[in-house]
Each structure stands twice: as C-alpha cells, then as structure tokens.
Amino acid sequence: MQVRRLLFSIILIAVSVQGCATYNPRPSKEALFLERAQVKSENQVRVAAAVPNRGETRQIFGVDLYADGVQPVWIEIENTDERPVWFLPVGVDALYYTPLEAAFLSHYRFSRSANEKMNRHFFENGKDIYVHPGASRGGFVFTTLDEGTKAFVVDVVGEDQEVRTFSFFIPVPGLKIDHRTIDFEDLYPKSQWQNMEDEKDFVAYLETLPCCTVDKAGTRTGDPLNLIVVGSGDDVYHAFIRAGWDETETITAGSAWKTGISFLFGGKYRHSPVSALYVFGRRQDIALQKARTTIHERNHLRLWLAPVQFRGKLVWVGQISRDIGVRFTKKTVVTHKIDPDVDETRSYLIQDLLYSQGLAKFALVEGVGAAPIESPRANLTGDPYFTDGLRAVLWVSSRPVGLDDVAYLDWGKEAD
Amino acid sequence: MLPRSVIIPQPGAWALAVFMIAAALLHGCAGFNPPPANEAFFRSRTADQEENGIRVSAAVLSAEQAETVFGLPLYNKGIQPVWLEIENKTAHRMWFAPVSIDPDYFSPLEVAYLHHSGYSSAGKEKMDRHFHKHGLRGAVDPGEVRSGFVFTNLELGTKAFNVDVIGEDQQVRSFTFLMPVAGLQVDHREVDWTGLYAERDVVEVENSQAFRNTIEKLPCCTTDEGGNRPADPINVVIIGRGEDLLYALLRSGWDETAAASAYDWTAQLPWEFRYQPVKPLYLFNRSQDAAFRKSRSTLNERNQLRLWLSPYSFNGENVWVGQISRIVRRSVWSPFVLEPDVDEARTYLLQDLWYGQSLLKYGYIRLSGISTLAEPRKGLQGDDYFSDGLCLVAWISGEPVSFSEVQFQPWERPVPERRNLMLGRLPEQPGDAGEQIETK
Asked: A147, A323, A406, B108 - which has most CB atoms within 10 Å?
C-alpha cells in the first residue's frame, strides 16, 4: 500500500510539474556526443554522423525521445562541389520521423507555449534534403530506436547524377551486447588455429563439424548447425546488420522483464535476449535476431567462431531458426515454437542476405545428417524438426554485391 | 528502475493457458480434412508471363478460395496465399526467391501452426503435411514445371508483387504482377475515367516552359465541397501512366482506399482502418479520384495522398495533380492533426519513389507564396500548416530506374536555408536560389 501511495504522489507531482512546464533544451553545439562523430568523404562531399545516447538526447531536446522509441541521428553534409546535392533520409531509416512528428510525440499535455517552443526547437534542428553548393549545415534525422550499434546509410545524390553512399556503423553506449563481452583473440590458443587453402580440405572439415548444438553439459543435442559463414573482420557483422538483423541483449533480470512485457502485448521489443546453446564447449559468440510483425514471429541466429581460416577468412559455424509462436513448458514457462522445416529457414537466410546485397557466394555441404518429415529429430526444448541434412556455406561481404554477381558453388549437393 | 526480482509475469501466462485449454475443449478435437486442392478454378484468373526461357503464372486467392483450398480461414490471420507456376525452358537450373513477393512471407508450416489450436495431434500432423506439400520450394530443373503456394501478408484491393527467378547462369528474371483481389470497393475503380473530361477540355502540353506555365496556374489549394474554403495545399504533380503510378505506390507500401460510399461507421478499431476511405477534398469541382494511405505499425501516423487526373497531358503522358500530407495523433483516443510542416510529406514521397526505382525525373514549380511558422495557413479541419509553396513534379517510370539515373529538372530549387526561412530569419526571396546555378 505504501508503494502505491508513493507512486500516486509521484504521478501527482509529475502532472502538476508538467502543467506549468517550461521547455529549456540545451543547444546541441555544446553536446559531447559530437566528439564521437565519424567523418567520411567522397568526391567533394563530406559527411559527419553521430548518435547521441539517451542522456545526451534528453539534454539536446529537453525530452526523453528514447522513451518514445525515437533516436536522433546527427548528420552534417558539406558540399564543396559546384552543383547542388540531394540527401535522402530514408536511407538512414525508411520510417524516419519528421522533426515536428518527433516533437508531437513529446508534447506536454497542458502547456501550449512550451509546445510551440518545442516545435521551433525540433524544426530548427531538422535536416533538409537539399544541400546547396558551399553549404554545410548539420541537423538531426529522427529514426526508430536501435540500441547497440546504429547502422545506416547516408545516400547523397548529385545533380551530376553521381551517387555517393556513406555507410556508418556507430556504437551507441547503453546496451550490453553479446559479442562485445567476448575476447575473440584469446578464444583459441595460437597453436590450435589452422589455415586452409584447398577447397577439398575445407569441405572435409565442414563435414566433420558436429551436427548440432548441445546443452551446457554437452550430453543432449539440440538445433542443427546448418550454417557456415565465411568472411573477414567485420564482414559478418556488417552484412547481417544491413539485412536488418538486430544484436541481442545479454540476459539480465531487466531484459527478461522487458521480454515478458512484449510477450504479453505482442509488442516489438527488438533486443530481447536469446537463450544459450553450446558448441565448441561454449555458448554462442554472436546472437542476432530479426523481428517480423510481433515478438512471436522472429528469426534467431547464433554463431560460433571456428578455429580455422579458409584462404585467410574467418569461419563461423551457426544455427538459424524461425519462431512461429509460443508454447508453454514446465521448465521456462514460455518458449518459442520453431518452424520444423529448418531448411526453409536456411533458404530464407540465403535470400535475405542476397537481397540486402551482403552475399558474395554460397554453397551447400553435408554434415547435419538427414531427418525426413516422417521421422523428425527434436531440439533441446523438445520441438521437432526435419531436414535434408545440408548446411549452407555463405561468403558474406561488407561491400554491396549486386544480385547478378552472386556465385553458387556446385559442390554436388542438392537441397530437397 | 525496474525491480530485479521480476522475471516473467506468470499470472498472465497461466491465465492465457487456462483460456487456451478452455478454448480447445469447446472446439473439440477436430480432425483436419481439407478438400483435395483443386487448382482449376483459380487458374482462370491467373496472369501468364514469359521472359528469357522462363514462364511464370500467378494467381492471388480470395478469402473464399483460400478457405476452399486449405479448409481454413487464412484471411482471418492476415495470410494471403499466392499460387505460382514456374516453367523452366532453359538449360540452367533456376531458383525462385519468395522474398521477392513478400519479404515477410510466412513459411508453410508457420501457417499450419497458426491454425493448430483445436485439432487433435493427428489432425495437426495432417495439416502440417498438407501445407508442406503445397508450399512452393526448391529449384526448378531444366524442362521442369513446378507449382505451389507462397503465403504472403494480406493485401486487399490490388496485389502488386514481383516474382524473381534466379538462374545458375547468374541471370535474374523478374516478373511484375498487378492483380485485383476480391473484397474491397477500391475508390479508383469507381471512377469513369473516359467521362471525366470532354475532348475539347483536354489540353496537350509539349514543352517544359509551357508545362511550367500551366501548372503555375493551378490553384494553391484544394477546397471544401462548396469550393469556398481553401483546404490542404496542392503539392504534388505526377506525370505518367496510371498503371505505373499504381504499381509504384503499392510496391512502396502504400495502400489503396475504399470509395467514400463504402465508409463504414462501425469499423473504428485500429486494425479496421487500413482501407477506410480518406476524407474528400475538392479540386476540378470533384473529390479525389484516388486516395492512398501509408501507415506506421502504430497507425497513429499516416501519410495520405489524394490524386486527381488533370485535363492536361505532357508529351502524351497523363498528368496527375495531388495533395500529400501526414496526419498524426497521440493515441487511439485523440483526434488526428495535420503535421504542420507539409513540405516534409512531399519530400517523403519523392524519396519513396526514388528508392522504389520508379522515379525518372523530378523538379519543383511554385504554386503559392511562403507561409512561415509564425504565420501559418489553415487546412480544412483548422489545423495550422506552413510551407515554402513549392509543388513537387515527379515523372514515373514503368521500368525500374537505377538510383543514379534519376534526373533533375531545374525549374526551381528549394531555398538552401529553408529552416531559417520558415523560422522567419531570412528575407523572403522565392526563386532566387534556382537562378544562381548554371545548368548544363
């Protein structure tokens, strides 16, 4: 009861404070986040971009935009060309908010003059699409909130019909991301690493990898390892984020609470945590997910770094599943039901990377072991699945690859 | 801060479980007995296309057809099956990409799972097999014909989609379909296009300067029904074939809307809004010929585009005059208001067409003076708006236009310091910026 009374009085105070609210944001030029700005230049156009975190956003705009799911991205475009260029904010976020829309979401309930002031402040800090020669005005594009890494593209088109595309991957402080906590350098002792040059050796290695993930003790087998991802450095990360995959949060009590909320209301909490599966004696190194219409429908992807390199590129072993609903279990109360047709999900991923231009080439190898629809296997939560027993090998690319340039390597295996 | 002890709200989960058990009991343990899939009756409504050795037929199933074929009301779950048949007459193996039809397509077993509740386990298994069997999957070998279903997100009105077939010869064959779906009284299908203008009223314009002069003479704004009160500003002119325009908008996620006569007062729930008629505004002495709407997932923010076929034609192409605005509200309970910066909606449409590869060329023509934040004008509902007074002119293409092929027609340019101008910090000099730049 005490808690309730306390809450009530807080609400009362909040309401009365809002009633005579004044709106006094701090000028953005003083903001510290600009020190984190990334700068890129191409052919007479220089683009600087930075993303303020929640606290910085509150300082700049005087309201908590993150709470409304809005994240401002600061962009400055300097045009030193003789001809105008046009900047297209939908490249940053296809569902971007206009400045006055973002202000509208934050409007105070009773204070008209404060709201007008807010409108002017947001409007002034917006970003126009037309960039006159010699101009270099900075401004904000209001995007849908992405915690973790903000990945976006700034497309600038000149009237000389030249397109300049700038890709940004900007970490935003605030979210504990799975793969940040892992020291990839020390995952394996130096002696354990092997580099493969011959394709035959590589195929042979891939076929001997374990069929499936296991539980923590390593005694029971779970979802099939039907993915191999090959790429150097950040390729994996860039290709998947560009395809719309989100990083996941590590499990804390707070994040489980948030998942619970989105489970009950079907809302989109895009960074809900992923449970652990084990390969190489450890839980996944990277967990990503792609939300569809509700939290019940999303795709999960887990990757483990393997101690091999193929022609100098890193090799990741992975697992992908499509959640098609929730069901109740004794152990965890709720769990996701996966699509038993795991090959379909594998095929979706190939297309997903293909259409987001992150796939350079792909192939199919053995290694999972076939399980026909009549005699399915089960994963760790008891969900059945069936498969043709193949794993997809995907060469990913940071640089966009056109649909016509993607190569299929015929290693003699055919998907059913 | 959230309390650390909270994990999963169990009471909610248990209540749901109890409810589901009760629902299952009421339902009984039904068996799943779909009729044998009869493809003949919707074959008559298929469109057939052939390109470079590949033939594709497609049909979009109506609610009744979907229920007949699968024995389940798929439309109730927002699922719309599209039937495809692909024939490979080439010497190469072909892959079909369902994401080209719908990036968020449902997998066959997902559709089955969504309908499992209430069925016995044998019934569920039978359902799974049925959907698995009828899903279109795998490669199409040389000489082979394959058919099956792709389960897409429901769209009424006209279904616009691509079928991409990717060959091992590294060629992509792309087929474009625009197919009417039964069940929605779409506004533009009620228009008597040939009767809109008498032959003597039609004006053919052939050069760029004459076109600019013609457009400049358009009124600044739409009006109310009586034509007395000015309403939301005219800020878009689109040049191109109606079919290309329709395809461009639908592929960019715009929805068609129902004719005003189909307005349903009872359909006020958020998910029933999607195809509701857009309020009429008036131009050329009539309400809009076609209206489109694009919403965010919350439905509290929507773009609305109203289009009128004008009596003008430019180099033989149709000229559409339009009004685009964005309306927002805080929640389902509050009224919609106009986003005051109407130029933003115009800018959004430009990008939408650009990224949708439908934009051939664009430019701006001035239709009215500048109205600033301090001295706004009013829309029909009395909402304030401000604008730089420019109207976007966009040429639409039926063939995909790559990002860098888009041309700019230098009639006028937006003011470089638009924000300062709108905030009243610049002297008003419309048109000046355009003349400063030499054009080749």
From this structure: B108
Cβ distance of A415 and B139 shorter than 8 Å: yes
State the alpha helices, DSSP H only, in A111-212. Answer: 112-124, 199-208
Residue A14 lies in a domain: no
Asked whether the beta carbons of residue B351 and residue A257 sit closer than 8 angstroms, the reply is: no
Interface touch A348/B99, C-beta < 8 Å: yes
Write out the residue range of the structural domain in which residue B421 sits. Answer: 187-436
Q: CB–CB of A351 and B98 under 8 A?
A: yes
- Of all helices (H) and strands (E), which one includes residue A56? helix A54-61
Q: A399 and A280 share a domain?
A: yes
- Comparing alpha-carbon positions, the chain B residue that sits nearest to A403 is B172
Co-location of A216 and A361 in the same domain: yes
pTM of the model: 0.79
Residue-wise pLDDT tens digits, A60-102: 999 999 888 899 999 999 999 999 999 989 888 888 898 998 9
Q: Mind listing the pLDDT tens digit for each residue in A294-349?
A: 545 678 899 999 999 999 999 999 999 888 876 665 554 456 788 899 999 999 99
Cα dist from A378 to A213, A281, A365, whole Å: 12, 20, 22
Chain B nearest CA to A384, separation (Å): 12
Contact between A411 and A203 under an 8 Å Cβ cutoff? The reply is: yes
CB contacts under 8 A, A 276-295 vs B, are 292-293
Are A161 and B110 in contact (CB < 8 Å)? Answer: no
Are A194 and A209 in the same domain? yes
Q: Look at chain B and report how many structural domains it folds into.
A: 2
- Per the structure block, which two tokens stand in for B355? 């990224």
Provide φ and ψ at B201, rounded to 5°. -85, -15
Name the minimum distance, in Å, from the CA of B392 to any CA of chain A.
Answer: 13
Instruction: Answer yes or no: do A92 and A224 share one domain.
Output: no
Query: Residue A39 maps to which CATH number?
Result: 2.60.40
